[in-house]
């Protein structure tokens, strides 16, 4: 194996990429903050890595004197408890696999490691970078140590939502019952090829960092919100089963309605938190109202929104709706300067809007409010990068200078 061969020279390296995911049944609240065990199951759509991905290289060498970590080219704290938890768990599994003894052909577990990680999108854009980041870290470490088992349980220790980024397509994180978390895992509900007509538009409205980090916010919600308790105990179990059915049936009406309702209930629990947490802005509310006007005009659910712990909207639509809705967004939030960069990612065709549609849906345009639209679709889980020229670390184990 690559790692074993390289180990003879004292240096081994592995590079992986991992995706972002967007929840349609939200995770919000932990029953165990150390093990990152949730109070409810959740379900997400993995987004395509052609548009949004993290790349991570992990290297181990007998010449390294300390563990080191670089995020987007800058050295970061490798001692971060969540990074350490992932490292410890991967090494524990590698040791277990080797049956306690040091396999001479395998990479030594006592070597220090260097890790470099980069996103192909702005970290602060609020696009769930921690999920892709930890899924990628765990995937790269697993490759380095030659682990082949399913590792969503380890990714979960980095960030709860990261366990769902360990699979492509439609992914459920089952809350589990055991106190040690061994049954709190991600499972694929359907692969990304299951529903090819389903497309995703990310409306990036703000580059600002979110006001309250989700880790802190959700704990305050657990402590103070009776609505969250009701949601976790009663609402989510029903919704999760429904959502799985809608996905299996490729039922956009059902899928979209439930995604919107669940996003709204998550933000209602934020408002029910004391003191309240506000992730949605006036602009988010504007987009929500726009989606409802658009659906009402067509007489059924053509687009569905969902919002995480930030103001960016993620819109689901079937392929035949994308061009028209993008034009509606362009008319509702006329781009200020960079009109040519307004739509990014997958190509979007042109659409002419009828006067009735414009009159019914495009009310009071807000120029410049949406920075850009990223057009993407469901995609696969973490990938191994075979090409050594793509490693983020050089032969000296330090980050390669970026062009
Ligand atoms: C609103 O996974 O970021 O995006 O487990 O504390 O790292 P930690 O939280 P995190 O929370 C994500 C919350 C959410 C909903 C979701 O992705 O399900």
From TrEMBL:
- Describe the function of this protein: Catalyzes the ATP dependent decarboxylation of (R)-5-diphosphomevalonate to form isopentenyl diphosphate (IPP). Functions in the mevalonate (MVA) pathway leading to isopentenyl diphosphate (IPP), a key precursor for the biosynthesis of isoprenoids and sterol synthesis.
Q: Name one GO cellular component term.
A: cytosol
Any one GO molecular-function label of the UniProt entry: diphosphomevalonate decarboxylase activity
Q: What Enzyme Commission number(s) apply to this enzyme?
A: 4.1.1.33
Protein name stated in the entry: Diphosphomevalonate decarboxylase
Q: Does the keyword Lyase apply?
A: yes
According to its UniProt entry, this protein's organism is Nicator chloris
Keyword tags: ATP-binding, Cholesterol biosynthesis, Cholesterol metabolism, Lipid biosynthesis, Lipid metabolism, Lyase, Nucleotide-binding, Steroid biosynthesis, Steroid metabolism, Sterol biosynthesis, Sterol metabolism
Protein family = Belongs to the diphosphomevalonate decarboxylase family.
Q: Where is this region: Disordered?
A: 380-403
Q: Where is the Diphosphomevalonate decarboxylase-like N-terminal domain?
A: 18-186
Q: Which GO terms describe its biological process?
A: cholesterol biosynthetic process; isopentenyl diphosphate biosynthetic process, mevalonate pathway
This enzyme catalyses:
(R)-5-diphosphomevalonate + ATP = isopentenyl diphosphate + ADP + phosphate + CO2
Specify whether Lipid metabolism is a keyword of the entry.
yes
Q: In which pathway does it act?
A: Steroid biosynthesis; cholesterol biosynthesis
Domain Mvd1 C-terminal intervals = 200-384
Pfam families named among the record's database cross-references? MDD_C, MVD-like_N
């Amino acid at each position: 194996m690559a790692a074993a061969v390289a180990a003879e020279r004292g240096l081994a390296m592995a590079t992986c990429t991992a995706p972002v995911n967007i929840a349609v049944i939200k995770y919000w609240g932990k029953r165990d903050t150390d093990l990152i065990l949730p109070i409810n199951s959740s379900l997400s759509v993995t987004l395509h890595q052609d548009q949004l991905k993290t790349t991570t290289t992990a290297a181990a060498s007998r010449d390294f004197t300390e563990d080191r970590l670089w995020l987007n080219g800058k050295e970061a704290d490798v001692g971060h408890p969540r990074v350490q938890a992932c490292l410890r768990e991967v090494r524990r599994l590698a040791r277990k696999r080797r049956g306690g003894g040091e396999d001479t052909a395998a990479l030594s577990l006592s070597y220090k490691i260097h890790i470099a990680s980069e996103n192909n999108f702005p970290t602060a854009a609020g696009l769930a970078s921690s999920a892709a980041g930890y899924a990628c870290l765990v995937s790269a470490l697993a490759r380095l140590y030659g682990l082949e088992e399913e590792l969503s349980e380890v990714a979960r220790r980095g960030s709860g939502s990261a366990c769902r980024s360990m699979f492509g397509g439609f992914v459920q994180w089952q809350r589990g019952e055991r106190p040690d978390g061994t049954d709190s895992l991600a499972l694929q509900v359907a692969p990304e090829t299951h529903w090819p007509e389903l497309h995703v538009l990310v409306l990036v409205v703000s580059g600002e960092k979110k006001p309250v980090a989700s880790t802190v916010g959700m704990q305050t919600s657990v402590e103070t919100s009776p609505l969250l308790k009701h949601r976790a105990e009663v609402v989510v179990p029903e919704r999760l089963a429904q959502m799985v059915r809608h996905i299996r049936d490729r039922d956009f009406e059902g899928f979209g309605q439930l995604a919107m309702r669940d996003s709204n209930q998550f933000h209602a629990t934020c408002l029910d938190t004391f003191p309240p947490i506000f992730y949605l802005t006036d602009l988010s509310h504007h987009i929500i109202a726009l989606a409802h006007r658009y659906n009402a005009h067509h007489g059924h659910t053509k687009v569905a929104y969902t919002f995480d712990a930030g103001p960016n909207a993620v819109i689901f639509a079937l392929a035949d709706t994308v061009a028209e809705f993008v034009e509606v967004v362009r008319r509702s939030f006329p781009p200020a300067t960079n009109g040519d960069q307004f739509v990014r990612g997958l190509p979007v065709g042109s659409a002419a809007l009828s006067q009735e549609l414009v009159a019914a849906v495009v009310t009071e345009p807000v120029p410049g409010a949406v920075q850009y639209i990223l057009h993407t679709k469901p995609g696969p889980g973490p990938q191994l990068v075979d090409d050594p020229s793509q490693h983020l670390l050089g032969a000296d184990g330090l980050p390669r200078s970026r062009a």
